Each structure stands twice: as structure tokens, then as C-alpha cells.
Task: structure prediction
Amino acid sequence: MTAQTQSGQAPDLLYSEAEEDLRAAVRSLLADRADAPTVIARTESDTPYDPELWKALATGIGAAGLLVPEELGGQGATHREAAVVLEELGRSVAPAPYLTSSVVATEILLALGAQDGPASALLTELAEGRRVAVPAVPFAAASAANARLDSLDGVVGPVADAAAADVLLVPTADGLYAVETDAPGVRVEPLVALDLTRPLATVTLDGASGTRLADADAGRRAVDRGLLAGAGLLASEQLGLAEWCLTETVRHTRERHQFNRPVGSFQALKHRMAQLWLEVVSARAAARNAADALATGSPDTPLAVAVAQAYCSKVAVHAAEECVQLHGGIGMTWEHPAHLYLKRAKADATAYGTAGRHRETVAALMELPAP
Amino acid sequence: MTAPDAAELRRRTRELLAAHPPATTDRTDFLKARFDAGLAWVHYPVGLGGLDAPRSLQPVVDAELVAADAPDNDPRRIGIGLGMAAPTILGFGTDEQKERFLRPLWVGEEVWCQLFSEPGAGSDLAALGTRAVRDGEGWVVDGQKVWTSSAHLARWAILIARTDPDVPKHRGISYFICDMTDPGVEVRPLRQITGEAEFNEVFLTGVRIPDNRRLGAVGEGWKVAQTTLMNERVSIGGSRIPREGGMIGPVARTWRERPELRTHDLHQRLLTLWVEAEVARLTGERLRQQLVAGQPGPEGSGMKLAFARLNQEISGLEVELLGDEGLLYGDWTMRRPELVDFTGRDAGYRYLRSKGNSIEGGTSEVLLNIVAERVLALPSEPRNDKDVAWKDLSR
Ligand SMILES: Cc1cc2nc3c(=O)[nH]c(=O)nc-3n(C[C@H](O)[C@H](O)[C@H](O)COP(=O)(O)OP(=O)(O)OC[C@H]3O[C@@H](n4cnc5c(N)ncnc54)[C@H](O)[C@@H]3O)c2cc1C
Result:
């Protein structure tokens, strides 16, 4: 058997002090600028993204450059820190192109390994929060294999955060291109998305031109690596989201009285919340494991990411569904934020591959083949 | 004296190994020497098998000993002593009690069992009815205990009994160390669904216990028992579990080796359980890292819940996967085993034995109550038993 059953170095599954400091900074920013009523109001406006929030997060806190080495203008940190930022973004469901630009697009550019030239120049701009780039790849795609145009001509979608992007990273049969969203022959048309807090768009390229960053093979490998990092760190967003849902549900059921007692004192509800707590605790271990594997370049990374996605997707959806149910009627309202979390959780469960897709990856890596 | 650091512990371990080479030293002699060197459980006090060192440094000692092929104290055989009796004796025992009991307990010369559950008091343990009545310098105990694992092997038992029936149930309990060789102790095997008898019924008739075998004050037994139960639920292994280390291991191996057994439905379920088992392993690993870093979290109370459910589902899947073979069972002979091995024997045994995982040491329902109330701070259910004298409770 060649499947690895015993990994060498133990992954570090805890949070460092620096990571906790970063968390505190991001959390206080989001509390200031993205409370639930603000987020709900923005989703109904023409500007779902808050440019001030992005500036403070990307440049002020420096979160956009966490994965980028210092010599390229970044913070020289790792996926572990980016994962903490995503936990907080999951907790607030504020629209921000962090996962798509600061993780996936950034990782794609990093994977090209360029020290100078257009890829590294763009990387610096992303790291400094001056521009936003997203991959022109369907949000549901787990690999570059079925996400490729023949040339800079055609339609791709739904693409996450394309409306917030200055640059698209477009994999084609002829190589990986950087295409400006305001260039001639490029149309970004918003779609009506299930998830109100992560806008989706169709990207139409009609004789567009762009800068070729890599040949087809290197481009495909880079996009695969970007999507792997995206899937791995999405688990941390799902963790933060699930944690918010549990905390909020516990708070509500302790306060809400029916039958002359708090509804949270009914054992039928207590057991459901205790079960959810166990799932959140487990999701934390899975998400930290994926972030640490990505950060340390562990050979276990593909397995760690597949396990985290196969597990955390379900936990986030379960937490959001319980949140709605245990709030009763108020959970069904537009005014209460629970629906934002349910919509995000459900969309996240498809993003970068469903749990079932990731289980197939586990099957392949662990040599547990289908009949 | 300041507590020794890792380097000092390593030095002392090597000294022990040099003075008592494992290859030529009798097993028990080696274990006694290790205890006396303070290298048994380094966080215990000096003179009681420890060196007052941080608990997180125990792996330093263990690694040296493993590398030198030194014998261990076979913790699976003496789990109740190590996991429950010892921390309770350490926390509440007199100096004489600690001196007398801890060394033979750790070395494995004396096996312990837990006389807590009764026919009328399981989840509601505080309702127990076994009576301990003052008699001169000691106590006389009468009553019945049940589900007592290892009672047939045990030299000593931790025992809780009612010393005052006229106060509410939590307040009238005292905690004792019971001599299992006392003529009033009768142990009868209790056969379980696997066919064998790991546990027993224990009848206590006029059992005399000297007062110096009481742990904690009279009437404070419930508080003392909390320490025991806490340790029971948190006694999660100190070492890393390898991937596929638990019940998922044999199923995965069968899947790889026997393609003729595979179906699509089983495949989906296997992968789901494989992922959950891997996540449970990582959750245990994270808890271990928290303990080592000196930041224990409440996660421990969840681990038993997770493993109980997984063990049951995985072994259930395995019986199905095996098809015709899953219809067979190794052996129904009534035995009184020395060891409990959850992953041992065949799939049918694993399936049946793992049913106990959600009952022993607190049922899963009770653990969910504990998580809800202690971790999530959800309100408790209305209760009608708190201010009623034990003797007036309904039974
Ligand atoms: C293999 C095995 C080994 C054991 N070894 C020992 C031992 O060595 N020493 C010892 O003292 N005991 C031992 N036990 C006993 C064990 O601790 C008890 O069986 C357990 O605490 C449950 O008590 P009970 O059997 O009386 O069930 P009950 O308490 O009668 O429970 C019946 C059902 O009611 C549920 N229930 C009870 N109260 C509540 C509540 N408040 N809320 C929701 N549901 C509730 C339970 O979850 C269970 O499903 C062992 C048990 C097993 C199975």
C-alpha cells in the first residue's frame, strides 16, 4: 500500500499569539464597519462592497499581502494567518473579495514563481491592496481541468467577486492571461446570486486582449494550486460562519421564553446545540490542519484540504440551518441576519467543489476506490 | 527545589536506564525503580512517583523509555486505577493513603475497580442507596453495585455510599476505598451482549471499612466523585494516534484487499465515515496540543461523544461490508476477560462492544446535557429533586 497512513511532523493545530492579535484587529474592524444591518442594506444597493472596509482590511491591517513575501511588497506570513482573517470574515459575512483575490488569485500568481515581470508586478499590487484580481473560473470548480476557454473569447461564470475585480486571471488553452476588466471586449455582468454577500457575475470575453503570464501547462498547475488553497482556506470561513450561528443560537434560546421558561432549557434544543458545538470543535481541527498543511507545504496538503472541505461544508450548512430553525419565525425574516449565513453556507458548500467531490479525492489519495 | 526541565528529565531517565537496564531487570523491579525515580507521572509530587514537573513533559520521559525498549505498566489493564482512583487519591487522600496506594497502583501490582453504579442509580448516580453506617472506628457497608468492570480482578475499589439519608441526595454521600478481599464482598459475573463478562454485580454485605480508608470529609463524597468522573471522561491518550489508527483501520484494509465486497452505497458511507474518523483524530490531536501548551479547553467532553458514535457506525458498516461473513460471530463462550479491547476480535464483536461506548462512563445523552449546560451555559431543566431528602425521593 502506498497510501500514507502516518505523517511525520505533527501539524500545529493551535493559534499563535500573533494570529490571535490579527484576529482581534480584523474582528474589531468588522464590528465597526460591517454589522448585520449595514451588510443587509449594502446587499440591496448597487455597491455591495464597502471600499473603505476593503482599504482598512487589505492595506490598513495588511491582510491582502499575508501570503506574499516581503520582497514582493507583502507581509511574508502564511496560510495560517490568512485562515484567521477568513474565520472572521465568515463570522461577519461581509462582502469582501478576500478569498478570491488575496488567497486564490494571489496563490495562482505565487505558483508561477516569477521574481519580476507582469505576474510579480501584479502580485505586489494585490499585496498592497491597490488592486483586486480574481480567477475567471466558475466558483464551483475544484480544478482547472474543466475551467478553460480556448482563447480570450467566450463566456465564463458564475465568477465570484468579478464585479469587484480590476483584473481577471483567465486560463485558456493557450496559456494563463491577465485581462483588465475595463479593457475593450470584456463584459462583467452581475448575476442574481443565492448568496447575497458574495456577488457573482458572468464574464464575457469578446476578442479581448491581455498579458500572457504563463504557458498552458504552468497556468493549469498554478490555477490548480490556487483552487487548492481556496478550498483549504474556505474551510476556515465555514468554521467562522458556523461559530457565529452557534453563538447566536445559544444567545437567542437563552433569552427567548415560551411555556414560562427559556426555550434553551428544553433538552430537545440543548442536545441539538451541544451536537453542533461538537461539530464546530471538530471543524476547527480540520480547518487548522488544512491551513497548517498549506502553510508548511506538507505533502499531506491535498488530503488535508479534501478532508477539511468534505467536513466543514456540512458543518456550516448544518449550523446555519439550525440557526434558522431554533430562531423560529424571526429566523425566516429578511431583517434578521440568519438568512445571510444560510445563503453563504449553502453557496460555500458548492464553491471549489462539493463535499462529495472532495470525498472522491480522499478515495483516490487513500486508495479506497469505488466499485 | 525548582521543577526539572526537559533536559533534566532526559538525564534522569538515562540514569534510571543505566542503573536498571531493561534487558536484564525484572519488569516489576524496573517499574518500581521508575516510580521511585519520580519518572512514573512527572507531574505528581516528589516521593509519589513524580517530580512536580509540568505534565506536558511526560512525553520526554516516555520517548526515552520507548527508545530503550523499557517495559511499561500496561495501562489498559489498570485503566480505572490510573485514570480514576489515582487522581482522586492524589486530590483528596491523606499522606498515609497516598503512600500506601499509589505505588502498587501505578506499578500494576494492585488492580482497581469502580463501585459507583447501582441498579437504581446510573445516570442519576447521586440517588445511590448503598448504605455506609458508622460503627465505632469504622463503617459497615450494605448494598448492591452493578456494571462493575474488572471487579473480578480488583484488589481495591473506589466506592461511594450513602452516609446520611435525611439530607438531599448530593449531600449525604461519602467516598471510601473498599478492600475487595473483605469477606462481605461478593462478585458475580454479569454476562453482556458480546457473550463474555467484562463487568459484574457486586453485593456488599456487612463490609467493614476502617475510617482511615475514607477519601474526603463525611458527606462530601459527591464532590470527591466529581474528580473521579472528570478524569474518567478526560482520560484521553497522551500520544498521537496515527491516521486510520482507530476502528476505521480494519474496514479500510478490508476495502482495499477485497474488491469483490465493494458496492456504491457502501463506498459513499465508507468515505463519509473515513473523513469523520480523520477529523475526530485531528480533534483529539488538537486537544492534546492544547493540554501540552497548558491551555486545556472544554473539547475533552466532546471527544467521548464523537468516538462513541463513530465506533458504532464504523463497526456497523463493517458487518454489512463483510456480507456472508458478517453473519457469523467468532465465539459466544462466556469468559471473564483480563483486558477490554474495543478494536480486537471480529467485526461482530466490535459492533456489539461499541454499543457500550455511548453508555459506559456517562451516556451520550447525559454528556450532551453536560456540554449544553457547562460549555454553552444553556439553562438547566426544571428539577424537583434538589431540595428533597434522599429518603423521600421517588424510586
Ligand atoms: C460496558 C460498561 C461498563 C461499565 N463499567 C462500570 C464500572 O466499572 N463502574 C461503574 O460504577 N459503572 C459502570 N458502568 C455503568 C454506567 O456508568 C451506567 O450504565 C451509565 O451511567 C448509565 O446508567 P444506567 O445504566 O442506569 O442507565 P439509565 O441512567 O437508566 O439510562 C437509561 C436511558 O435514559 C437516558 N437518560 C438518563 N438520564 C437522562 C437525562 N437526564 N437526560 C436525557 N437522557 C437521560 C440515558 O441516556 C439512557 O439512554 C458500565 C457500563 C457499561 C455499559
